[in-house]
Amino acid sequence: MIVPLTDVQLKAIQNFFPRSEAEINQDLSIVRHWLDKQPHLPKTSDEFIKKVLFSLKYRMEKVKLVIDNYYTVKEIFPQIYGDLDPSTDTFRKHVEAVHMFPLPKLTPEFHRVLCYRMSTTNAKLFCPDSQLKRNELMWNWLFDEDALTLGDIWIFDLTNMDSMAHWAHFNLSFMKKILKLNLDAKPVRIKRVHFVNITPVAETTLNFIKYFFPQKYKNRILFNSTFESLHDLYPIDMFPNEWGGKAGNLAELSQKMHEELIKRRSWCLAMEGLKTDSSKRIRQSKTADKSILGIEGNFKKLCVD
Fold first, then answer.
1. Residue in 105, 178, 112, 101 with CA at minimum distance from that of residue 151
2. What is the C-alpha separation between 173 and 293, in angstroms, rounded?
3. What is the pLDDT of residues 176-232, one digit of tens each?
4. What is the C-alpha separation between 46 and 54, in angstroms, rounded?
C-alpha cells in the first residue's frame, strides 16, 4: 500500500532534526519516567514514543501534552474511537461512500499525502463520525507503518460535494473536533490542505472553516480550481489516475487501504482499549490539557460545551 523508505531517505529525514542515539535514548528515558507517574495512561511502546519525539521536534513538554491528549480523546469520544472493527457492514458502507487513502509514495519533501473524495453525490451517505473514525484509523495505521515522515498533506476532491446538504454537516461542533483531534491530540505536522474542484457553496463553507484555524495554518489551506494547479507542487505520477497520475484509480486505492485494515483487524480492535482511565488521573497533573475539545474540569466529571 505504501512504498517503504530507503535507508538514504530515512537518513535524510532524520537529518532535519539531528539527534544522536544517546540523546534519543535519554529523551526516551525522560518520557518513560514521566509515563510511570501517569497511572491514567495506557502502556506505550518505545517505538511510538520515539516517533512522537521526532514528529514534535523533541520538544519535551509538547510531547507529554500530546501523548496525554492522544489517549484522552479516545476516552471522551467512543463514537469515534470505539467499534473499530473494519470488517463490519457499517464500516464497509462508508468505504463505498467515501474514497480515503494515502498515496503510496512520499513527496520529494518527505511528506505523506492523504486523499479524500466522496464516491457519490448522495449527501445522506456522508456520516461525520464515520468519517472521523475511519480517518483516525488510517492515520494511526500510517503512523505505525511509516518509518518517519516530515508531515502530512491533505487533498480533498470536492467533485461530488456540490450541494448545501453536504456542507450542513460542517457545523461548529464538527469543526472543533477536527481541529483539536489533529492539532492538539496527534503528533502530526500538517504542511498543506488542498481543496480542489470547489463550488461556490463549498467556498463559502470553507472560508467559514478557515476562520477557526490558528493563524499559522490559515496560509496552508489552499483552494485549487483544478488538479492541474497541483502539478507544479508535486510529481504528477504520484497522483491517482483520475487526477492525472499513475498511482491507480481512486476506488482501488481506497479499497487497498480498507484491505490493509482488514489484515490488521486484531490491531484495530486492540486500539479500542488504548485510552485514558479518568478515574486514575492525578488531579495535579501539569500535562493534562483541561480544555481539550472544549472540555473543562479534571476529567472525572466531564462538561462538554
1. 112
2. 9
3. 788 889 989 999 999 999 999 998 888 888 888 888 888 888 999 999 989 999 999
4. 12
